[in-house]
Specification:
heterodimer, A: 416 residues, alpha+beta, eight-stranded antiparallel β-sheet, 31% helix, B: alpha+beta
Chain lengths: 416, 479
């Protein structure tokens, strides 16, 4: 894994101990016109266009405290530098959790997760981070601190700047503190796995799931020979390179009922190669499917989003340009991650702009580079796609909060 | 009052939407001088009813050309004065944009016009196995465009979230007349989440002309319980126990004795009139898990001295229970000529404290207060009863309201959970937020609405707030 120094053109890294010190660092960088690269756990540093402008690394490692945890209110307030595993442990002590998957949770920080809007298989059942952030503190590109929202689960006072910051890749403000709405832990989970003949059959099953009597929290479509090598997902079926994995959470009787129900629903569709996975095996599958995008840091990973009904067609479009790609799709959400080993060099940008972006756009979706692997020469258009009708407004908002364009300079949709 | 430029603006608006769809006489416009917040009133200069996005854009451009303020309005059910046309100008009423454009079950979304009444969508989806989750108590009248503006909640937000959790994207007309789309049916569009910012912006950032909403799978079953308590503490402690037991009910509502009596008089459900509090608790999900949850809740309530626990035995009984809850505000009409509903939020563990304080505040100001609210969310709706013809009562109600909301802030809560800031609560923004926070919000507005012509003097206590005082001096001072 590359370090921050290898990926970012850092002249120095500072580690402020609180928001006031952090704001002072930003103000000082802004006076010098120096780029500012916020640093969390460093697990997603390669997400976004490769930065060229030298600047300071602004580490959140000094802001990692639990500020307030009133468990019975089902909220928690923490500083943004807390790791996802530390957050999970704190919540687990009260049998609670944030039901958003985090890869490399020992290192990944909440702030980094929010900036990249990371999500995993559970997003179908529980939504994404934007649904859990109810209060936020941040420092904008001029070093001006601000907050929005609050500490109660329902609150419509003032503009919801939380939404503005989630998924903004740190380009609107540096998140320093967050209040989250949280949920109780579930008591059991399981996966149902089906081995399928081809993508057409997968599409049929996905369509059927829309009216299934079961209530999955994850619907993962796995395509590619690589999945056969997986210890748990691979060992069950010898042949076939298409698998559908459906994840359940709930109480033991609910899980038992859903496994039986889905088995019979699938049987009616002629799918008999199915297996349930429970307890330790189920845990292993959650883990595998959460870690997938982080697993091979040097590979090119693309992320496409389409209306869910177009998932299979979009996967086909990606396979047309790289027949050996490994695909994990959060299929019921229309989100596709594709590890493409066959594409490299100039071919990557060309394929994206000329083939894959139009393929996604024609279905009402888009495709971005999720992890560039070894590619360093991608243009903004290749990386993030064509701007939409809301792009000029996004730029105006960005200019209000970071008029010098210093925050994660040149990395996001605002790059020249 | 009507100037020549207003006359020519009216003419031009008629050209855009047709004569029938423009109102400019005072008598016709009276109904548009306020929304559910009736304390402040101001008639717009013109009311216009566009039918298409393009018409909205043309109206907005005309307003800019004539330099008059303008604002959108749905059904006018909002409760904080979000639809008050401060400074007059053009009111753009979106109720003719009432088409349900598309329903995609496979992709679990629908596209609707802003004028679609919330319940119409639910009705259109009947039998599909899907529904639109946000169900504010006013769902029979309020529009989805208005729900987007205020980020509406409702009784089922505890499990299902509020409007913003169910809006995938919007088409909107900006303050300069530009049409744009944010978000859409495909997830995770790169860039800033402008959809998330627009929801709850109370019509001050853009005029939403189309909404992509998420559809939610119907629950296989539900259990609706009514738990009756002899003390408010016991009821609120039961709530805490249920949450502590890792149960997330679909709804967890509370009514106190005052409201129970009014509701009983109106609907004859059979509520015991001497009960201090009832909890309406609904769990939903797979049948396989529901009886367990019901039994657990029953046990927890009994452990907190519930006098009686009833279960709705049929769909019609459940419907009646919900009718009692959702129309509780209507029933209040039996108690007094006027009432004022507050919308405070506190951490749910502070509910017992808050209810004590509300009772105490009511006593001190000699104002009768009844409570019906979203207990699971900590979202209180104290209803202050008065007669608006009596100036002394009005003053006492306003003083009591302010004290209640100040207490919500003091215990770490907010002054509005779902009704909005509008003009009603502008004075609280300084108590909730610092100058820095308000400046950041002001910057956001600057990016969207730089001239400030779109719905001025709402949400943020900027220089514009003075405009209200100029319009009705003394009146505002009485607040």
């Amino acid at each position: 894994m590359s370090t921050s120094v290898e990926i970012l053109p850092l002249v120095e890294t500072v580690v402020p101990v609180d928001q006031a010190a952090l704001a002072e660092q930003v103000r000082s960088a802004a006076r010098r016109g120096q780029a500012i690269y916020p640093l969390g756990g460093g697990t997603s540093l390669d997400y976004g266009l490769p930065p060229r402008q030298p600047g300071i690394g602004l580490s959140l490692a000094g802001l990692n405290r639990v500020v307030d945890y009133p468990a019975r209110d089902m909220t928690i307030t923490v500083e943004a530098g807390i790791t996802m595993s530390a957050l999970a442990e704190t919540l687990a002590a009260e049998r609670q959790r944030l039901p958003v998957d985090a890869a490399r949770a020992q290192e990944a920080t909440l702030g980094g997760m929010l900036a990249t809007d990371f999500s995993g298989p559970r997003r179908f059942g529980y939504g994404t981070l934007r649904d859990y952030v109810i209060g936020i503190n941040a420092v904008d590109g001029q070093g001006r601190p601000f907050k929005a929202g609050g500490r109660v689960v329902k609150n419509v006072a003032g503009y919801d700047l939380c939404k503005l910051l989630v998924g903004s890749l740190g380009t609107v403000g540096v998140i320093t503190q967050v209040t989250l709405k949280i949920r109780p832990q579930c008591t059991s989970s399981a996966w149902m796995l089906a081995s399928l003949d081809d993508l057409a059959q997968a599409d049929k099953l996905l369509e059927q799931l829309v009216t299934s009597r079961t209530t999955p929290v994850a619907v993962e479509l796995l395509v590619g020979a690589d999945w056969r090598n997986d210890g748990t997902l691979g060992r069950s079926f010898a042949a076939g390179s298409v698998r559908l994995a459906v994840g359940f959470e709930g109480t033991a009787p609910e899980i038992a009922w859903m496994i039986e129900q889905l088995t019979s629903e699938w049987q009616i569709l002629g799918v008999t190669e199915t297996l349930p996975f429970e307890s330790v095996d189920a845990e292993r599958i959650w883990n595998t499917l959460t870690e997938f995008p982080a697993k091979a840091p040097l590979a090119l990973v693309l992320k496409a989003s389409v209306p869910p009904s177009a998932t299979v067609a979009m996967i086909q479009s990606i396979r047309d340009v790289d027949p050996n790609c490994t695909v994990q799709a959060h299929a019921a959400s229309g989100v596709i991650l594709a590890r493409c080993a066959a594409l490299s060099g100039e071919q990557v940008g060309r394929t994206l702009v000329r083939i894959l972006q139009p393929a996604a756009a024609s279905r009402g979706g888009h495709i971005v580079v999720y992890s560039p692997g070894a590619e360093t020469g991608l243009t903004r258009q290749a990386y993030w796609g064509l701007p939409g009708s809301d792009a000029p407004l996004m730029k105006k908002v960005k200019e209000q909060f970071d008029p010098q364009g210093l925050l994660n300079a040149g990395r996001f949709v605002f790059a020249p | 009052m009507i100037s020549t430029s207003t006359i020519s603006l009216v003419d031009e608006l008629r050209k855009v939407v047709g004569t029938r769809h423009v109102l400019a006489s005072h008598a016709e416009m009276v109904v548009y001088e306020c929304d559910g917040f009736v304390i402040e009133k101001r008639s717009p200069d013109v009311v216009v009813f566009p039918h298409t996005t393009d018409e909205v854009a043309r109206i907005v451009r005309l307003c800019n050309q004539y330099d008059v303020p303008f604002l959108p309005r749905g059904a006018g059910t909002s409760l904080a004065g979000g639809c008050l046309p401060v400074g007059g100008g053009v009111m753009i009423v979106l109720t003719r944009m009432k088409e349900i454009h598309e329903i995609h079950l496979r992709d679990r979304y629908a596209v609707v016009g802003p004028g679609v009444v919330n319940i119409w969508l639910t009705q259109a989806l009947k039998g599909t196995g899907y529904h639109y989750a946000p169900d504010p108590s006013s769902q029979g009248a309020c529009t989805i465009g208005g729900n987007v503006a205020t980020n509406s909640g409702g009784p089922h937000t505890l499990k299902y979230g509020v409007t913003v959790n169910h809006v995938l994207g919007v088409e909107a007309v900006l303050a300069d007349g530009t049409i744009l789309q944010t978000g859409g049916p495909a997830a995770d569009r790169p860039g800033l989440d402008l959809t998330g910012v627009l929801v709850g912006s109370e019509g001050t950032l853009a005029i939403v002309t189309k909404v992509w909403v998420r559809l939610t799978r119907d629950a296989q079953g539900c259990r609706t319980l009514l738990a009756i308590f002899d003390s408010i503490e016991d009821a609120t402690n039961a709530i805490s126990e249920i949450i502590g037991a890792c149960i997330v009910p679909a709804a967890l509502e509370m009514m106190d004795q005052g409201i129970i009596q009014a509701v009983e008089a109106a609907f004859h459900f059979g509520f015991p009139l001497d009960a201090q509090a009832v909890l309406l608790i609904e769990v939903d999900g797979l049948e396989a898990g529901l009886d367990d949850q019901r039994d657990q809740i029953t046990q927890l309530c009994r452990g907190r001295n519930a006098r009686e626990i009833r279960e709705a035995r049929s769909a019609s009984e459940r419907q009646l229970l919900w009718k009692c809850r959702k129309q509780a505000f209507g029933a209040v009409g039996r108690l007094s000529p006027s009432y004022c509903t507050q919308d405070g939020v506190v951490p749910r563990t502070r509910l017992p404290h808050m209810l004590h304080r509300i009772a105490d505040i009511g006593q001190r100001h000699d104002v009768r207060i009844v409570n019906v609210f979203h207990a699971g969310d900590g979202n209180l709706h104290p209803i202050l009863l008065f007669d608006e013809r009596d100036a002394g009562q009005v003053r006492r109600v306003l003083a009591a309201s302010e004290e209640i909301l100040d207490e919500c802030i003091a215990v770490g809560g907010s002054v509005t959970g779902e009704h909005g800031i509008g003009v009603e609560k502008l004075g609280f923004m300084h108590k909730l937020f610092t100058e820095d926070d308000l400046a950041a919000m002001g910057r956001l507005r600057q990016a969207f609405n730089p001239t400030g012509r779109l719905s001025p003097s709402k949400m943020l206590p900027t220089a514009g707030a003075c405009a209200i005082e100029q319009i009705s001096p003394g009146r505002r001072a009485a607040l």
